[in-house]
Amino acid sequence: MRATTTSRAALPPAPLMAAVGEGEGPRAAVRGRAGRATARRALRVAGRHAVALVVALFFLVPMLVALVTSFKTNASALTGDVLSLPSSIHLGSYGDVFSLGGFAGFTKVSVVVSVVSTVVQVSLSTLAGYGFARYSFRGRTFLFSLVLLTLMLPPTALALPLFLEMLHFPLAGGNSISGAGGTGLLNTYPGLMAPYLVSGFSIFLARQFFMSLPDEPGEAARVDGCREWSVFWRVYRPLATPLIVIETLFAFQTAWIDFLWPLIVAKGPSLYTLQVGLSTFQQEFTAQWADIMAAAIVASLPIMLIFIFGQRYLRRGIAWSGGR
């Protein structure tokens, strides 16, 4: 009798037990909804990763095929399966690239054009973007609208007007002061570099970056007696290092991979860039697929290295371009 009384006393009151039972239902429903939401979120993430994987394979498979083919002999590349691995690694195609077809000369032209045009474009674009962001002057909005207008025009639409401008450039290539009588800047390094010296996108990117910086450091420097150039060079230029890196990546990539403009301006192999040179290399060695793939891999290396080591800066540049 005493044990029964003790066990009953240890139990919680009946109303409290009923309240606990009623509370379990809502908590279980909340846990169920949270579990379903987590499952849906996991499915969405898995779906995005699956789509990204398919897109990545779509771009990687041709590159892998080219890389594998470059390690084959020309005979095995011509007769064997495209997706088959070579029985032994053959590096002779990479030696043939620089000994046949003037590939070394094409590389030199591409390096000179890309490096010089990148330095000029980054310098001009950074200064122009700083001016648009930090100074108020008459016509600023109109001029910046013209800069944005250049982003809406495809490069192919500008090829013919720019070609005529290079052809009739005054006092160049035998031309008179009126731009007649000679070849102008055609088949010259300045003519090759002309489209890459100024970029509306780089100016826009620089303006967005400098508008995101505070005014206080520049005002403090002016109070201390700094002139405008010193304010830019000593205060804002060190802060613009990420911007300069991004502009350099975009400018070098644009000049390196372009095919149409060097094809129009260069009149001989002495000024062919890598992209134009690859087309002649393919015509000369039509059946030498291992050599052609090795040349394509070598020509793609700078761009691949840019995206491998500079992708975080490229993402930051895309974020800036969408700013205020």
Notes on the structure:
The protein folds into two domains: 14-70; 99-321, MetI-like (MetI-like fold), CATH 1.10.3720. It is 74% helix and 0% strand. It has 15 helices and no strands. Helix 6 packs across helix 9, helix 10 runs antiparallel to helix 11 and helix 12 runs antiparallel to helix 15. The longest helix has 57 residues, at 14-70.
**Integer tally of domains:** 2
> CATH superfamily assignment of the largest domain?
MetI-like
For the termini, the CA-CA separation is 82 Å
* CATH class call of the largest domain: Mainly Alpha
Q: How would you classify the helix and strand content by structural class?
A: mainly alpha
Percent in helix: over 70%
The overall pLDDT average reads 83
Helix/strand order? HHHHHHHHHHHHHHH
Topology:
Layout (H helix, E strand, L loop, with lengths): L1 H9 L3 H57 L3 H6 L12 H8 L3 H32 L5 H12 L3 H13 L21 H5 L6 H12 L4 H8 L4 H12 L1 H17 L2 H6 L8 H11 L4 H33 L3
Helix pairs in contact: 2-15, 4-15, 5-9, 5-12, 5-14, 6-9, 9-12, 10-11, 12-15, 14-15
